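Residues determine shape. We examine one folded chain.
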Amino acid sequence: MKKKKYTFCILMCVQDAMKEYLERKERGELAAQKVDFLKHNILRPVNLTVTKDGGLHFGDVVMLVNMGGENGECSALSINADINSLTKIPSPGIQAQCGISAGRGIHPCIRTAFIITSVDGSPEGSTLHFEQSFALKTTSGFARGLYLTSDLQSFQKCAKKSRLQEVNLNDDGCFLSWWKVVQFDPQERIEYEGRPVTANVKVLVIHCKTNQALAVLGDQVLWTTYGKEYEVTAHTFLVSHKAEQDKNHWILCTSDPAGEGLVLLNRPESVAMDLERTQAKTGI
């Protein structure tokens, strides 16, 4: 009798568990369904800006790519959202605070697209200049228009792997989200101050409050929803003669006006020439 009662209880528990599973599946609440939903939305292609004059402008949609140097991999600044970052209010999308990583997929999509946004009243379409403050914002809609943000390193607030200055996405466009583009060659930095920023060439992206450069740490691996990626931090890495290392070098990529895809991928010779100039000037 006791054995039959025990078996009956087990069957009831299994039925209840199956019922709950089917209900969650119908509502799209299973972990696998959430991952599929996240990837389906955040990996949707985005059209980057086609620059007509070769420069960068406020309102341009760009992708930030680090070439990795001799021993590193090419990677793009990416939204590191997981299923815990999802929200349905007021509409499906990611929520602040959200992480940032450097992904190896060099494809323009919601995850890798950032908008050059004015913080000083400069009108949309006007030229971005070296040393001019601006913000980098994700696209609207699913990516929620969040700002790339950083702040002074502390014991409680720092990058998880390296413990250096943390970089993330937030919904507050305050001073912590202000950045500036600086010429990568320190010998020409003063000369370039105030000049228009050229697209698709190497530059430094400096955080205005802390004066630290955006960096990819190729030795700090993150295993994310999207696979093997690298930690992004705000920290200036210098070689012995005070020039920034490859991990601080970024290319603000635009679409190729001559065809589909990126200038970086379709015309790599321009990037190669830029690299040669860097090594000749800095002795790297």
Q: What stands out?
A: Residues 2-27 form the longest helix (26 residues).
